TrEMBL record:
Start and end residues of each AMP-binding enzyme C-terminal domain: 538-619
Pfam families: ACAS_N, AMP-binding, AMP-binding_C
Post-translational modification N6-acetyllysine, affected residues: K619
Cofactor: Mg(2+)
Reactions mediated catalytically: acetate + ATP + CoA = acetyl-CoA + AMP + diphosphate
Name the record gives this protein: Acetyl-coenzyme A synthetase
Binding of CoA, residues: R197, G198, G199, K200, T316, S530
Family, similarity comment: Belongs to the ATP-dependent AMP-binding enzyme family.
Gene name for this UniProt entry: acsA
Annotated Mg(2+) binding sites: V544, H546, V549
Chain ranges of the AMP-dependent synthetase/ligase domain: 89-476
Binding-site list for ATP: G392, E393, P394, D416, T417, W418, W419, Q420, T421, D507, R522, R533
Keywords tagged on the record: Acetylation, ATP-binding, Ligase, Magnesium, Metal-binding, Nucleotide-binding
Length: 654
C-alpha cells in the first residue's frame, strides 16, 4: 500500500476547499487561524499557556508553563493542579446536566442515552468503589473491557481518583494481557464477562483468567462487569461483580487534585524492537490538546453528535471517545460492535438513527465499506453529517474520493489526521473551515506544532517532494512523558538524533510545493495492519515460540483493505513441507500467533523455506523479503546469499 500510495499521491493535485454548506456554521475561519499561527510563532510557551488558562478549569492555576530541566522528559504546567474527570464531567453540570453525553448502542441493537448528570453519577460511584478496593493515586489499574460505556466510566473513575489506567484492547490474547499487566504492576483488573462483537461473544473473563493464572502476582482484585450475562467462573476472594462493588457507594466523589504533569494513563504500543512500550501521558497537557483538537479539527459545537468509531483500547479511543468529547461537553455515540453486523450498512444506519454530524473512522473501514458498493450507504439518510475524519494510516485517494462523494455527498470536509499514541492528539491535520484538502495528505501542522522533515543530519529538507524523517522540533502539551519504567528506551527511541532536540516520529514524509505533508510510511519495522501498529519482532517471537519453528521473519505486503498484510517466512526445525505447502500447519501457526498476540496479528501468508536470506553479518535481508512479499522483481544484490537456491523457495516457486 505504502508504495502504491506514494505513486498515486505524487500525481494527486486535486484540491477541495470547504463547501458553502460547511462554512455556514464553521467556527474557526482563516483569519482566526492565522492569528493562532502567528501567536504560536511569536511565543510558543505563551501561546499554549493562554489556551491552557482558557480551556481547563484549574484547581490551582499554574505559574510556570514548561519545565525543561529534565528534557526530553518535559513537564507542562508543572505547578498547576487539576482533575481530568472534573474537567470532563463536573464542569458540564452547571449548563449541560441534562444534555446527552453518550448514546450507547450495543451490537445487538440495545440503545441507551446517558446524560452528563447520570454519567457523572456513575463515574463517582465507580470511583468510590475503586477506593473501597484500596485503589488510590498513582496505583495502576488495567482495563480489559468490551467497547461499552462502562469502559469509559472505568477510565474516568481512575482519572477521578488519580489512579493510572492502562486499557488493553479486548482483542488481545491472554499472553499479551499478562505482559501488559506485569509491566504496569497493576493491583486491579477491570474486565467483563464478555462482549458482543462480530456476531459472537468475546470471552473476556476467560481470557483474563488465563492471563492471571500464567502470572500477574501484583493483581489482588478483579472487578467484573456483567455484559453478556453468560456463566463465567468467579474466584472467591479475588473476583467481584461490578454491581456488588458499586452497591451502596455514595454518589459523590471528591476528585483527587493532581499535578498537571502527573501521569493520567499508560497505553501500550508496538515498537520496532522488543516488547510493547507503555506510553505514559500526563493529566494537564494531554487534556489540553484533546480539547484544542476537538475544537480546531473537529469544529465541535453544542448541537453536534460526534462519533469516533475507535475502540478505547487504542489511543484514538482515549482522546476522541473517553476524554475529548466529554471535556468539550459534546454528545457522542459509542458503538460496541463491528461495521458489518448485521450487514455492511450498520455504520450508516447508526449515523441516520442517531443523527451523527461528525464521523471519524479509519481508512481500512472506509475501504472495506467501499468494496460493498454505493447502494447500501445511498439507502440511508446521511444528510445530518457535516464533517468526516480519518486516522491511523495514509488514505489512498480512491477511498478519499469515495468517502467524500458517497458518504459526505460532496458537502462534508474530510480531516485526515496524522498523529500517534505518543503524540496524544492530532498533530498534522486540516482545519475544516479553512484548509483546501488534498486526497491523501494530512495537510498542515496545527498551531503550536512545529513539524518538519529532516535528513540524516537533522537538517530541514526544503526541496518539495523530497522524503525524509518526520520530526517535531518543539515540545507540545500532549506529548509522551516517558516509556513506563524505561526512561532510557524513551530517550533512545524518540530522541536519538539531532542532539536529542527533535522528537523522531518514526514516519517518513514529504512536503509538496504547497507545504502540505504526505506521510510515506514507517521508517522502522512496524507494520500498520488495518490501522493497528504491530511490531514485526513481536510476531516473529510468537512464531519461534512454536515448538516446530526454528526461525521466522515477518514483513508487510500491500493489502487493498487492511493497508498492510502480515507476511511471514518460516524455517521449520524439521524438514520443509513438500512443495513448500502445508495447509494444516499454516492454519496451526496462524492460530498460534492469534493466541500469542491477538487475532489482528495472524499472518495472512506463511511461506516455508530452508533458510532465511542473510547478509554476511547475519542480518536478515528484510528489504529482499519485502520485495518478494509484494511479488515484485528482485533488484537487490543477492550474491551474498549463502544458498541462492532458497530464493526460489522464498518466492514460492520451489
Ligand atoms: C492515532 C494512531 C501511529 C502511526 C503513525 C503513522 C500512522 C496515523 C495517519 C498515519 C498517515 C495518517 N498514521 N495517522 N499515517 N496518515 N492520518 O493511529 O496512533 O496507533 O500509535 O499509530 O500510524 O505511521 O506513526 P498509533
Amino acid at each position: 500500500m505504502a508504495q502504491d500510495n506514494i505513486e498515486s499521491t505524487l500525481h494527486e493535485d486535486r484540491q477541495f476547499p470547504p463547501s458553502e454548506a460547511f462554512l455556514k456554521t464553521a467556527s474557526l475561519l482563516s483569519e482566526q487561524l492565522d492569528a493562532l499561527y502567528k501567536k504560536a510563532e511569536q511565543d510558543h510557551e505563551a501561546f499554549w499557556a493562554e489556551i491552557a488558562r482558557q480551556e481547563i478549569d484549574w484547581k490551582q492555576p499554574f505559574t510556570q508553563t514548561l519545565d525543561d530541566t529534565n528534557a526530553p522528559h518535559y513537564r507542562w504546567f508543572p505547578d498547576g493542579k487539576l482533575n481530568v474527570s472534573y474537567n470532563c464531567l463536573d464542569r458540564q453540570l452547571e449548563k449541560n446536566a441534562d444534555k446527552t453525553a453518550v448514546i450507547f448502542e450495543g451490537e445487538k441493537g440495545d440503545v441507551e442515552h446517558i446524560s452528563y448528570r447520570e454519567l457523572h453519577r456513575r463515574v463517582s460511584i465507580f470511583a468510590n468503589a475503586l477506593k473501597t478496593q484500596d485503589i488510590g493515586k498513582g496505583d495502576r489499574v488495567v482495563i480489559y473491557m468490551p467497547m461499552i460505556t462502562e469502559a469509559v466510566i472505568a477510565m474516568q473513575a481512575c482519572a477521578r481518583i488519580g489512579a493510572i489506567h492502562s486499557v488493553v484492547f479486548g482483542g488481545f490474547s491472554a499472553s499479551s494481557l499478562k505482559d501488559r499487566i506485569e509491566d504496569t504492576q497493576a493491583k486491579l483488573l477491570i474486565t467483563a464477562d464478555g462482549g458482543f462483537r462480530g456476531g459472537k461473544t468475546v470471552e473476556l473473563k476467560k481470557t483474563a483468567d488465563q492471563a492471571l493464572e500464567a502470572g500477574c502476582p501484583s493483581v489482588d482484585k478483579v472487578i467484573v462487569y456483567q455484559r453478556t450475562k453468560h456463566d463465567v467462573p468467579m474466584q472467591s476472594g479475588r473476583d467481584i461483580w461490578w454491581s456488588d462493588a458499586t452497591a451502596d457507594q455514595p454518589e459523590e466523589c471528591e476528585p483527587e487534585w493532581m499535578d498537571a504533569a502527573d501521569p493520567l494513563f499508560l497505553l501500550y504500543t508496538s515498537g520496532s524492537t522488543g516488547k510493547p512500550k507503555g506510553i505514559q501521558h500526563s493529566c494537564g497537557g494531554y487534556l489540553l490538546n484533546a480539547i484544542t483538537t476537538m475544537r480546531w479539527v473537529f469544529d465541535i459545537q453544542a448541537t453536534d453528535v460526534f462519533w469516533c468509531t475507535a475502540d478505547v483500547g487504542w489511543i484514538t479511543g482515549h482522546t476522541y471517545v473517553a476524554y475529548g468529547p466529554l471535556a468539550t461537553g459534546a454528545t457522542q455515540v459509542i458503538y460496541e460492535g463491528v461495521p458489518t453486523v448485521p450487514d455492511a450498512g450498520r455504520f450508516w444506519d447508526i449515523c441516520q438513527r442517531h443523527g451523527v454530524t461528525i464521523f471519524y473512522t479509519a481508512p481500512t473501514a472506509i475501504r472495506a465499506l467501499m468494496k460493498v458498493g454505493d447502494e447500501i450507504p445511498n439507502s440511508y439518510d446521511l444528510s445530518k453529517l457535516r464533517l468526516l475524519g480519518t486516522v491511523g494510516e495514509p488514505i489512498n485517494p480512491e477511498a478519499w474520493m469515495w468517502y467524500h462523494n458517497v458518504i459526505g455527498q460532496g458537502r462534508c470536509p474530510i480531516v485526515d489526521t496524522w498523529w500517534q499514541t505518543e503524540t496524544g492528539a492530532h498533530m498534522i491535520a486540516p482545519v475544516p473551515g479553512v484548509t483546501h484538502a488534498k486526497p491523501g495528505s494530512c495537510t498542515r501542522p496545527l498551531p503550536g506544532i512545529d513539524a518538519a522533515i529532516v535528513n540524516d543530519e537533522g537538517e530541514e529538507i526544503t526541496t518539495a517532494n523530497q522524503g525524509g524523517y518526520l520530526v517535531i522540533r518543539k515540545p507540545w502539551p500532549s506529548m509522551i512523558q516517558t516509556i513506563w519504567g524505561d526512561d532510557q528506551r524513551y530517550k533512545d527511541t524518540y530522541w536519538p538524533y539531532f542532539g536529542g532536540k527533535y522528537y523522531l516520529a518514526g514516519d517518513s514524509a514529504r512536503r509538496d510545493d504547497n507545504g502540505f505533508f504526505w506521510i510515506m510510511g514507517r521508517i522502522d519495522d512496524v507494520l500498520n495492519v488495518s490501522g493497528h501498529r504491530l511490531g514485526t519482532m513481536e510476531i516473529e517471537s510468537a512464531l519461534v515460540a512454536h515448538p516446530l519453528v526454528a526461525e521466522a521473519a515477518v514483513v508487510g505486503r500491500p493489502h487493498d483493505v487492511k493497508g498492510e498484510a502480515v507476511f511471514a517466512y518460516v524455517v521449520l526445525k524439521g524438514d520443509r513441507p513438500e512443495g513448500g505447502e502445508d495447509e494444516e500447519l499454516t492454519k496451526e501457526l496462524r492460530n498460534w500467533v492469534g493466541e500469542q498476540i491477538g487475532p489482528i496479528a495472524k499472518p495472512d501468508d506463511i511461506r516455508y523455506s530452508d533458510n532465511l536470506p542473510k547478509t554476511r553479518s547475519g542480518k536478515i535481508m528484510r528489504r529482499l523479503l519485502r520485495t518478494i512479499a509484494k511479488g515484485e522483481e528482485i533488484t537487490q544484490d543477492t550474491s551474498t546469499l549463502e544458498n541462492e537456491s532458497i530464493l526460489l523457495q522464498l518466492q514460492g516457486k520451489a
